[in-house]
Design a protein that fits this description.
The structure is a homodimer. The first copy, chain A, has about 325 residues and is an alpha/beta fold. Chain A is about 45% helix and about 15% strand. Chain A has 2 domains: about 5-50 and about 150-324, Rossmann fold (3-Layer(aba) Sandwich), CATH 3.40.50.1100; about 50-140, 3-Layer(aba) Sandwich (Rossmann fold), CATH 3.40.50.1100. In chain A, the strands form 2 sheets. A 5-stranded parallel β-sheet of chain A has the order 1-9-6-7-8, with helices on both faces. In chain A, helix 9 crosses helix 11 (about 245-250) and helix 12 crosses helix 13 (about 285-290). Chain A is globular. The interface between A and B is medium-sized, with 29 and 29 residues. Chains A, B: Keywords: Lyase, Pyridoxal phosphate.
Chain lengths: ~325, ~325
């Protein structure tokens, strides 16, 4: 199981590879939220999302002989790009199984980063069976998107940086809002904060209709989403929290926060105008919660992740047309 | 006159105030340019452009009694916001004289940052006369946008950071492309590189029709633009290089680079998709030169500034519609 020692080891393996992202702010966002807002812009991470951290952590932790056979991953896009880049850095093959309806940019980028992309139909095909066959044939190692200790350790390095920067800013207590799909980033950050900034509390943020982590936390057990389709916030849509991530969330996190798709689009427009950052819808839900769920947040400062920026231009233009 | 000692002093005064921006990159941009491309994202600076550095440098260098009366500036927008924020940080009044046709966002932001905005008509009114009257009445100190040694020193801190990060990346020789209006950023960076990275060479980048710095360098004397209107790249449109900045450019810079408005828009779209950054048209001309003027650049790496990101949504959407 992932612990702080594993996270620190992952940080050492990522040093000089993952970008050390800052905490950004804007007085205009502070005014909207009624408290100081600090943004951890993982959209600036390599491949445009935090997923590179976990992918590089997991692939760098493999025994070299195993790694040489290559890796395989299932992903709607951001994990795919992270695995593709990390595998290419080690010079090993990567096969990525992606849903046919994933954003075009994510499919194109994954291929351009050197991976072999295998598309499947979300409704009619069994991605696990496809993956099992390919893995058996080629000796590929599966890099899971979140329910994998070394992936969680890699995402947790985000939390080490948040703890360090919060301390430098004199922030001792605050909610840390995290865009949450399967819970890899949220659980990793929660573990890092437990060790390095115990006054900071991680809280998962999700889009309406896909609030499995929020409901799981409030019920104390894993709950599934009713919908199986994807939504605007495709990057963070999973059926349920992970078997490994949920116990960590349950032990360490505050209540989840849920925002509407419109609020996510509005937050994207504000990230554009006030931070000069490109956020994808799923990557903007934590900022949306910081700005529009102010009654559910405590303290005079809030920290939130922008977990990714891989958004097609038409969706971004919708956000600007409606809210900029 | 600005020298490296003044730049280092400005850096000390800016420490803990100006953001320390990184150098970002993308393998996709490297492919387009045919060499490694490193981007200095000053759009992430406070107020969304590098101008905060020079404004804070100049205002922090004033004698406190003088500063207490307040400051005044002429600006189409980015210098205005930088002066407004820096003045508010010192708790002193700021009056900003802005053209009536400046982007709405820049006028709004300057007011929101606490400054008093006085609008004038670019064609029919004499901004210098308006400024002189106000300054005399209230004892305001003029903070010039570029032809002022302490402003150049502040902008030069950008060059200190570029030199430091280039050394860490092992880049010993490269062109450093700088979005150039009056030449404050370009001359400041050139002075910093002369001292800290003599293998790096600053080169001004401009939009077609407003290439006064490029023509001035090639003629060895200050040349004016024929057009007096503003253009798409409003942030970096000036009639001519400064009397103080030009001798520095002439002594230290390589030839200028000129890009079309369409190339600037294309670079904005690529900064969106590949760097997750919001660049304004004038702030994208150096990236455009790095990507689309590859025959005019030497070496296997190029560094370029994104000087600002204060762009109205409709202009940004035009860039995405046409080039994303």
């Amino acid at each position: 199981m992932t612990d702080i020692t594993m996270i620190r080891s992952a940080a050492a393996r990522l040093a000089g590879h993952a970008r050390r992202t800052p905490l950004l702010s804007s007085p205009f966002l502070d005014d909207i939220a009624g408290r100081r807002v600090f943004v951890k812009p993982e959209c600036l991470q390599h491949t445009g999302s935090f997923k590179y951290r976990g992918a590089r952590s997991a692939i760098s932790a493999l025994d070299p002989d195993t790694r040489a056979h290559g890796v395989i991953a299932f992903s709607s896009g951001n994990h795919a790009q992270g695995v593709a880049l990390a595998a290419s850095e080690f010079g090993v093959p990567a096969v990525i199984i992606m849903p046919r309806d994933a954003p075009r940019m994510k499919i194109d980028n994954t291929r351009a980063l050197g991976a072999e992309v295998v598309l499947y139909d979300r409704a009619g095909e069994d991605r696990d069976a496809i993956g099992a066959t390919l893995s058996a044939e080629r000796g590929l190692t599966l890099i899971k998107p979140y329910d994998e200790p070394q992936v969680i350790a890699g995402q947790g390095t985000t939390g080490l940086e948040i703890a360090e920067d919060a301390a430098a800013l004199g922030i001792e207590t605050a909610d840390v809002l995290v865009c949450c799909g399967g819970g890899g980033l949220t659980s990793g950050i929660a573990l890092a904060l437990e060790a390095d900034a115990p006054g900071l509390r991680a809280r998962p943020c999700e889009p309406e209709g896909f609030d499995d982590a929020t409901r799981s936390l409030s019920h104390g057990k894993i709950m599934r989403n009713a919908q199986t389709t994807t939504g605007l916030c495709d990057a963070i849509v999973t059926p349920q929290p992970g078997e490994i991530t949920f116990p960590i969330l349950h032990r360490l996190c505050g209540p989840g926060l849920v925002v509407s798709d419109d609020e996510a689009l509005h937050a994207m427009a504000l990230a554009f105008s006030r931070l000069k950052l490109v956020a994808e819808p799923g990557g903007a839900v934590a900022l949306a919660a910081a700005l529009f769920r102010t009654d559910e947040i405590e303290g005079d400062a809030v920290i939130c992740t922008i977990s990714g920026g891989n958004v097609d231009a038409d969706v971004f233009q919708t956000a600007l047309s409606r809210f900029a």
